Amino acid sequence: MLRDVKPHNIMIDHELRKLRLIDWGLAEFYHPGKEYNVRVASRYFKGPELLIDLQDYDYSLDMWSLGCMFAGMIFRKEPFFYGHDNNDQLVKIAKVVGTDELNAYLNKYQLELDPQFNALVGRHSRKPWSKFINADNPHLVSPEAIDFWISCFDMIIRRG
């Protein structure tokens, strides 16, 4: 797991059409059942696992970060989730994926949000991807791009 996927950690060689991930300082080998530090990744690319202190995360964390980058590119909104702190970051995520999906994820792992977190996050329905399309980005949005984006952000699919 790289655990710090973000635009600054990607190098592209356009001539050779190669992409490389760099800065492996926070990387760890994944071992099922092992608990990992949640103080990794840059805030705007942190998966919900890290924001709710779930230490039993896996490599799908990097897929979330990739989804954040991808959404920023196709919808021309960078960063895609712009939280002012980790708590606000979780609120921004809940406003897009919806609190029902967030709660299903929490229930799957027998986790509970702190009551103050529940009040902070509130209740939100999943935001349709079409709400992110504007005059600047329709040429970047395709059914395949949306399918990929949704699969990166689907918390239940990512964690199997």
Automatic annotation (TrEMBL):
One biological process term in Gene Ontology: regulation of cell cycle
Pfam families, sorted: Pkinase
GO CC annotations, alphabetized: cytosol; nucleus; protein kinase CK2 complex
Domain Protein kinase: residue ranges: 1-160
Entry's transmembrane regions: none
InterPro entries, per the entry: CK2_alpha (IPR045216), Kinase-like_dom_sf (IPR011009), Prot_kinase_dom (IPR000719)
Keyword ATP-binding: yes
UniProt entry keywords in alphabetical sequence: ATP-binding, Nucleotide-binding
GO molecular function, one term: protein serine/threonine kinase activity
Protein name as catalogued: Protein kinase domain-containing protein
Origin species: Gossypium mustelinum
Lineage of producing organism: Eukaryota, Viridiplantae, Streptophyta, Embryophyta, Tracheophyta
